[in-house]
């Protein structure tokens, strides 16, 4: 049998430097623990049913695999696939008779056409070099009437510093500049994914719907929220890498706000208020 993904080999995920050897499993696990209170009810709201076969496209470290299975038990099953070997190793702790975890490029994997009822694809389409062709390929995996759910964080800018919108703005601009330089990307490369509704419609999916919710946190924070914000945002997204993109004064202020030992540490402020959007667009294959 010809692999239907072979025609898409040139479109392999990798816009943001992904390879089978790349490992950011800690970051993925922290995000899933942080966003679990919002993601689990969102999964429960999309109308899954017992007996369905679900694909988690870009499953990362796999925390969503049992959440998806809970919606299709006892007769349903879930397949997760991710490019990075380290992520798959982490995800395989969830493997069972009903959960299969595969390692490989999503666009060239040996997945049976017309074999999936629902595709859950969260914070993945932004890694594709050609998102529309990626969605078109995913649609070939659907049974008639099957659906694709594209989820993306932060289509609306986050609020980190409720008390200082200017510093928040220049920090977000610095992050965008850093990613453009690191990956040699244009602004359009980084913003094309904003049209998740448009991607589904251009792939000829129908009955497209979209829902955006806010992940909202205020102080005092639980350990999962603190770990995500400190490690994924304050340290990995910001930190030393932003120094060339900020004025000396702004960088010094950012460092103080990110330092848990400093009296101005953001997460210890009584006015700390964090907002991050999460958008989910769902489209259906023509029956």
How would you state the average pLDDT, rounded?
93
Intertermini distance? 24 Å
Radius of gyration: 19 Å
Total DSSP helices: 9
Strand content: 15-25%
**Which descriptor suits the 3D outline?**
globular
Placed side by side, the strands forming the largest sheet appear as 3-2-1-4-5-7-6
Reading off the top of the CATH hierarchy, the class of the largest domain is best stated as Alpha Beta
Which residue ranges are poorly predicted, with pLDDT under 50 across at least 5 consecutive positions? 1-13
> Structural class per helix/strand content?
alpha/beta
Order of helices and strands: HEHEHEEHEHHHEHHE
Structure overview:
The protein has 2 domains: 4-155 and 187-214 and 277-284, Rossmann fold; 165-183 and 216-274, no CATH class. Helix content is 36%, strand content 21%. The protein contains 9 helices and 7 strands; from the N terminus they run αβαβαββαβαααβααβ. The protein has helices spanning 25-44, 64-72, 85-91, 131-140, 165-183, 187-191, 196-202, 223-238, 248-258; strands at 53-57, 77-82, 99-103, 116-122, 142-153, 206-218, 273-284. The chain has a 7-stranded mixed β-sheet with strand order 3-2-1-4-5-7-6, sandwiched between helices. It starts with 24 loop residues before the first helix and ends with a strand.
